[in-house]
Amino acid sequence: MTALEGHYDWDAILSGLNQYLRIRATPIGMKLFETVEEMEAIDRIRRPNSIHTADQIVGQACRLGWTVGATAEDFVGSQCGAVLGLHPQDAEWEKGERYVGVWWESPEDTKKHQQEMTVVPFGKYKAMAVSPLTTGRLDPPDICLIYATPAQMILFINGLQWAGYKKLDFSVVGESSCADSWGRALSTGEPSLSLPCFAERRYGGVMEDELLMAIPPAYLPKTIEGLAKLAKNGLRYPIPPYSVQNDARAGLGYSYGNK
Questions:
Q1: Distance from C-alpha of 169 to C-alpha of 190, rounded to nearest angstrom
Q2: Residue 44: which region, alpha, beta or left (left: phi > 0; alpha: psi -120 to 50)?
């Protein structure tokens, strides 16, 4: 399964995610645009009619199956737009005054948090859009967002690491952890796993047992191929629990007996 000139076999990718991981939430794509007109030209795109968080816009695609576009003016405050590079990461944003005493004890703690977030640099993009991968409306998206349980997510990572192994390092900034997922993936081009924050769960509909992988689409074909190889080795989801009291040799022998 390979991509040809930036085009992907989404049916095969989504079929693989469902076959090997039984993904519950709708996998979606996210794309940044240099002009609002480019974003608004997407087929059947919706535009917000009220003020939202970016988490809500993402949730509308993932939980409701909508294709939605937004600009900085659609977001409440500056935080959402700054992560996506749609709002300046200026001195006022760095202060994060509204967060002092709410999420961090002091102005110094808050400023350090703001500085350490991974964000898309401001100046190039004016709009963003999200859409379920099944629609093919963002072809290709800049990144894909996949919500999964910890058990599903570790197997997803195992599939990603099957060939061309590379250690993956992720970050945790706490609140505003969308900087750990879509902010980091958009700005670095690397797979970025996050623990969705309070706001993502309160406003974006993220379930309490879900993690989020933000990943450029080029990584997905090899991940599905890796999951297929793991499945042939009996390493599949759901992972059946092995008794904490049984002799471990029987279970390990099933996995490694032919090695």
A1: 10
A2: left
